[in-house]
């Protein structure tokens, strides 16, 4: 916020007053998913993929979306299995990017499990300080907590101890765990239609099974048509009765 204030104080004040800080500040971001993405790019991409399917009837639309999700799960699982290292290329690229920002950061050890990492910012005329805990894999900047990738403050402390930053990546980013998350096969769910005489049987002999909780509800095509015909007849009778009542009321003096 100090950097933003030095650039434009009016924008900083507008951001704090008009928008709830819990929705955009890293201090309130959740560290459960280990993902620091704060934009809606993935949502926009998904909406762009299904834009054609959304113009189709509901059953066709859901079927196309299901097929797309199933293909994406298989594709992502295969990509995770093809990783040459224990971690994905994007995670390693992010770690390398943070590593390049370690210059000019000093580290002091408190004698326990925490490190104070500081840097004199000449432009802002202040000293930036952050507390890093290698045991808890946390940093007061919240970058390491949210993303699972050591920030440049944490990397400075790790290098101070003579250790490798890659050993402090979160286990959720490992190849084994990433493939495990998408290792479940996509369950195909549909309406089964079959007949006692095979697909050449009469229409009334085809049986349709639909899952209804833990019990399968069995019916036939003829039964479905009879129910639909009865429903149309009841609706027509009710409409005729309502019109008759309205006509009688309109002629009353």
TrEMBL record:
Residue span, SWIM-type domain: 130-162
GO molecular function: zinc ion binding
Keywords for the protein's UniProt record, in alphabetical order: Metal-binding, Zinc, Zinc-finger
UniProt-listed InterPro entries: Znf_PMZ, Znf_SWIM
UniProt key word Zinc-finger: yes
Superkingdom to which the source organism belongs: Eukaryota
Official protein name in the record: Zinc finger, PMZ-type
